[in-house]
Amino acid sequence: MMEFVLNVAMELLRKYPLCDRCLGRFFAQLGRGLDNAERGRAIKVCLAMELHRKLLEKSVSPRDLVEIAKRCEPLKEVLKVFGVQVPEVEPCYVCGSKIEEMIEKGVDMVLEELRRLGIKRFLVGVVPPRDIDEREREVVKAFGLGYWESVRSELKREIGKRIKERYGYVTDFEDPEATVIVDFNEWRTWVEIPSLLVLGTYWKLGRRISQVPWVEKDGSRRYPLAIEDALQEAAKIARGERSVFHGAGREDVDVRMLGSGRPFVLEVCKPLNRNVDLQTIEEAINKFSPWLAFELEMKVKREVVSNVKASRGYKIYRALVATRDPVKKEDLQKLEEFFSNRVVEQWTPRRVLGRKRDMLRRRKVISIKTLQINGFLFESLIKAEGGLYIKELVSGDEGRTRPSFTEVLGTEAACVELDVLYVQKQI
Ligand SMILES: [Zn+2]
Description:
With 427 residues, this protein is an alpha+beta fold. The protein is 36% helix and 27% strand.
C-alpha cells in the first residue's frame, strides 16, 4: 500500500502542483485521525525521504528532482543539502493555494450567523466553489482515484470542526437547530432551520370552528375560530415564524370533535428555540380558547406527518336525526339491523361538489345504535370506516348516497347535529 500511495502521489505531483490539503484529500479515506493537510504533508515528507535515499545511493541525480521539488517543500530542503536551489513552490492547481483562507472565511461567516441566531447545535452546508470542484473532478478522473474526498465535504467538516473547537458550539447531525449554508461562489450564507414537529390530539368542543382559517376572497374570516389559530401560541414560545396544523382527516366545520379526540401534528416553522418544553406549549395552546383542547405527546420526525394524514381507521359518530314523518321503535330497530356491515355507495356530496370532483366511493357502515327522543327525533351512534360522509348517509343526498336512512326509514331524514366521538389511531 505504501508503494501505491507514494507512486500515485509522485505521478500526481509530476503533473500538478498541489498544496498539502488538496494532495491529502486525494487519499482522504486512507489513514485515520488525520486531517487532509497532515495527510498531504506526511505523503510529501515520505516522498522526500524516499528520494533522499535514492540521492544518497546515487540512483537519481539532484538535477532530475528540481521540477518535483517545486511542488514538494520537504524535497526542496533535501536538495539544498546537495547545493541545488529550487525556485518558489508553485500555487496549487486545484485551489490556487487559497483553501486555508477559504476555510477561515467560512468559519467567520458561519460564526456570525450562529451568533445572530443565538443557537448552539448546528450543521454546516457548503456550495463548493465551481472552479475548484471542476479541477478536482478532472484530476480524479485523469488518475482514476478511488480514495478521495470532495472539497465540499472537506470544507463542511473543517469549518464545523473549527467552530466547535474554538467557540464551543456543537455539531449535531441528528437534530441541529440550524444548518448554515455557505456559498463559496457568491460568498454569502443562508440558514435552514428544520421545523419542530409535535404529535398530539385535539378536541373541538364547539361548532363553527375550522381546522385552518377559512379566508374569504375579501380577506374576512368565514368562521371566527380555527384550530391553527391556537397553535400560533406554540410559534411564539419556540420563536418560530408560524405554526401549521396537520390533521388525521377532518370533520366538518359544524361538527364537534369529542371523545377520543383526533390526532394531529403541530409544525412550528423555523423555530429558533427547539428545546422548548412540550408542557409549556400545551398549556399555552389550551389557554387560547375554551372551545378547543389539546394534548401533546412527543416530538416526531417529518415522515410521521404523512402517516398521520393518511391514517384511515374507523370512526364513531353521534348524529341527531330528524324525520319528516314520525318513525316507530320498530323502524329504528330495522335501521340498526340493516346497517350492520353494510357497504354504502356515495357520489361526492352536492355540498362539496364545487371543491371536489365527482366520484363514487364505497365505505362500510360497521354498526349503528339508535335512541328515540320523540317520534320525529332520534339519536344515532354510527361506527363506520373513515371517509364516509355521515350527513349524506342520513339524508341520501337526493339519491347520490345509497342506501341511506331516508331510504330505509321510508321518510325524509336529516342530520341536524353531528359529533365525532372516536377516531381510531393508526400511528
Ligand atoms: Zn490546494
